[in-house]
Amino acid sequence: MAEAHQAVAFQFTVTPEGIDLQLSHEALKQIYLSGLHSWKKKFIRFKNGIITGVYPASPSSWLIVVVGVMSTMYAKIDPSLGIIAKINQTLDTTGYMSSQTKNVLSGVLFSTGLWVALIATMRYSLKVLLSYHGWMFAEHGKMSRATRIWMGMVKIFSGRKPMLYSFQTSLPRLPVPAVRDTVSRYLESVRPLMKEDDFQRMTVLAHDFAVSLGPKLQWYLKLKSWWATNYVSDWWEEYVYLRGRGPLMVNSNYYAMDLLYVLPTQIQAARAGNTIHAILLYRRQLDREEIKPVRIRLVPLTCDSGFFVSNPHPGSDTIQHLKDSKHIVVYHQGRYFKVWLYHDGRLLKPREIEQQIQRILDDRSEPQPGEAKLAALTAGDRVPWARCRQAYFGRGKNKQSLDAVEKAAFFVTLDETEQGYNKEDPDTSMDTYAKSLLHGRCFDRWFDKSFTFIVFKNGKMGMNAEHSWADAPIIGHLWEYVMATDSFQLGYAEDGHCKGDTNPSIPYPTRLQWDIPEECQDIIETSLNTANLLANDVDFHSFPFDNFGKALIKKCRTSPDAFVQLALQLAHYKDMGKFSLTYEASMTRLFREGRTETVRSCTTESCNFVLAMVDPAQTVEQRLRLFKIASEKHQLLYRLAMTGSGIDRHLFCLYVVSKYLGVDSPFLKKVLSEPWRLSTSQTPQQQVELFDLERNPQYVSSGGGFGPVADDGYGVSYILVGENLINFHISSKFSCPETDSHRFGKHLKQAMNEIITLFGLKPNMKK
After folding, report:
1. What range defines the domain where residue 108 resides?
2. Which end of the chain has the smaller Cβ count within 10 Å, N or C?
3. Can you give the pLDDT at residue 428?
């Protein structure tokens, strides 16, 4: 099967009479349809470029302006205050146009200039409006008149029916905070974590930095902020992601899980058919910019989308943006297959993709030498992979096959194991599921791809995503669409297969060919050993917390995120007996090309609350008062981070500038060496309209997670699903004697229940 010949465009043989040329009409038809498809895409992108380029106006508004100006001209009114006359005089030097033609052309030119000026004015006005963030700091439920007026103005200047990238040029730039403000907030954040002598020494270093070296570094950073679109994002991408030489697996890549309780079909090929088709539908919407911009209230967020691959190099990786990729690469039982996604100039239907996947599952060919564990190169250290890539994959069939993998729309793994939530053994089943998505067998996911889409033998699915090109909300948006489209739009036939008919005329998937020498196979084994050591050290605990959810937390009149973060602080103190520097991922997508910022969730206020919770002498009233203070402080820090007044990205960029200038800062060196022993992240639900949980309460997401950030710490991801469920994902390392993911999970459940009972509310303890 794998060696089946593809159709060729022509064949020829040399005979005594000359050359006998035989054209294949079917192949020529496919070439024609493929070219037609490409030109359609180019036209759509060109059209969208025009629409986005003139937004918030529309191309038709140009005609309205022209007609309006010409009408006033024929009414003997000069709307240009003499500008049209000057344009007319300039055109008069040609001597080839009549007076009427010059009048018309002058009016059109003035109208076009007026139209462009109006667009620029509207766009600048919208940028000024979006630079206001006071609405975020207003008390919940109490909106001032000024904020209402502001929201009305935003709505007016936002135009009608915006496309995905319509707002990008109107988003403000990320501001650079003042050095003194950042230093002051930093000292406040570490005050509860340091002994008095250590804090005094740090205070001296910080104040010295703020008055001496800090202003010099800040000047360069300000200069960059005026010149670059975002003063953080490019350095963050390069130094945090691309220059890291350790493994991407576990350390950087993260995962997304399937629906928690629902398994729509147990046929592996059918689930792959529907969900791969759904991913391609999403990509088509991306290409056509048909996805609505993500907004908070009326305020748009920056968009970063597309499918990418991270290419390794000895010093630093590079990101390659993939456009118009017409195939995927599928891994199964140690073999790689190239699967075309289009036939007859159209996207394959779900049943046709299922057919192609089933052909791969039915194939019984053996892996070629070195092929089965080849992807372990992407799981180990980056330098051996980069050198191996240059030495053994730069020519011949290896280069062709590697190009097929790296230029595929995405990578698919048909996993041979069965995964997913098992109510009879929830802990083991979810932990195994999480570890499978995070690292698998270390050689059956291509960790360089924007994402590896994984379909398990029992039909459960998941995703492993590369971090450098996009943060979790971008992948989350895609994943929500895929799960909803699979469940509520595409569906399955009664026998569990995709709806529709097979198509025997579609060529079989092509088996990729490799010629991997023994020296390269030795490097693959070395990378695999490195990856296995890392994977086997991951202690993972994933569980659904269904005692209560967002609905009950809202009755406490507090932010659900602040509630969970304070529960995490209480759980961590119970688990470790101390407080630790805590990282909560926030976002700066209110600004152009914004990505993430850090909320330092361990504060003096949160520590006071935790100490009150473990002190039996404290009353409920005292604990509630401290909870409210700590919750309000957390929400303030989160809002400051979102509005460009965070601490850590500013200090990171100041450190980068100091390295470029060749100067050392004891303060910055100390700050950036501090470990995040508790790293947390909330996975937001962005498209709640896709899931009607009142009608379909079982269709809840499991969320996703990531590996531990510190060798002696915890990584915690959580998602608040609907009103009554929170899914947690906890990671740590077996090699650390102080940590235990399951122990932390028990403390977290206790902390959640203890806090909710402070408010006189009873969690559902039956489960």
Report:
1. 57-156
2. C
3. 94
Confidence at residue 201, expressed as pLDDT on a 0 to 100 scale: 96
Q: Which of 277, 343, 439, 467 is catalytic?
A: 467
Q: What is the CATH number of the domain that holds 374?
A: 3.30.559.70
What is the C-alpha to C-alpha distance for residues 116 and 745, in angstroms, rounded to an integer? 58
Contact (CB, 8 A) for 718 and 562: no
Instruction: For 729-766, give the DSSP string.
Output: EEEEETT-TT--HHHHHHHHHHHHHHHHHHTTPPP---
Question: Is position 565 within any domain?
Answer: yes
The answer to whether residues 323 and 341 belong to one domain is yes
**Of the candidates 272, 255, 264, 279, the residue with the CA atom closest to the CA atom of residue 433:** 255
Percentage, residues of the chain above pLDDT 70: 91
**Any idea how long the chain is?**
767
Same domain, 322 and 446: yes
Residue 463, beta-bridge partner list: 256, 453
Positive or negative CA dihedral for 524, 527, 529, 531?
Answer: negative
pLDDT digits (tens, 9 = 90+) for 446-476: 999 999 999 999 999 999 999 988 889 999 9
Report the alpha-carbon distance of residue 624 to residue 628 in Å, rounded: 6
Residue 201 inside a domain? The answer is no
- Decide if 315 is inside a domain: yes
Q: At what angle do helices 213-227 and 196-211 cross, to 10 degrees?
A: 60
Report the number of distinct structural domains present in the chain: 4
Q: Whose CA is closest to 328, among 309, 344, 313?
A: 309
Whole-angstrom CA distances from 16 to 10, 71, 227, 244, 675 are 20, 76, 69, 63, 79
SS3 364: coil
Q: Examine the domain organization and report whether 98 and 131 are in the same domain.
A: yes
CA distance 87 to 93: 11
pLDDT digits (tens, 9 = 90+) for 272-328: 999 999 999 999 988 888 888 887 767 777 776 656 666 777 778 888 887 778 999
Would you state the pLDDT for residue 307? 60
Selection from 303, 307, 190 nearest residue 648 by Cα: 190
CA–CA separation, 578 and 640 (whole Å): 26
Residue 690 domain flag: yes
Q: Do 587 and 517 belong to one domain?
A: no
Helix (H, G, I), strand (E, B) or coil at 11: strand
DSSP track, 666-709: HHHHHHHT---SEEEEE-----GGG--TTT-TT--B--EEE--S
Q: Which of 633, 631, 609 is nearest to 622 (CA)?
A: 609
Instruction: List the alpha helices (DSSP H) in 537-592.
Output: 550-554, 560-576
pLDDT given at position 8: 41
Could you tell me if 479 and 612 lie in one domain? Answer: no
Last residue of a domain, one of 105, 123, 156: 156
**467 flagged as catalytic:** yes
Do 468 and 404 belong together in one domain? yes
Residue ranges of the chain with pLDDT lower than 70? 1-42, 44-49, 51, 92-95, 140-141, 297, 304-310, 765-767
Same domain, 420 and 561: no
Q: Where among 476, 503, 529 does a domain terminate?
A: 529
Helix%, strand%, coil% for the chain, nearest 5: 50, 15, 35
Q: What is the pTM of this model?
A: 0.89
CATH of the domain at 582: 3.30.559.10
Secondary structure (3-state) at 241 = helix
Strand 411-414 relative to strand 451-455: parallel, antiparallel, unpaired?
parallel
The one-character DSSP state at 137 is G
Quick one: how far is CA 454 from the chain centroid? Answer: 17
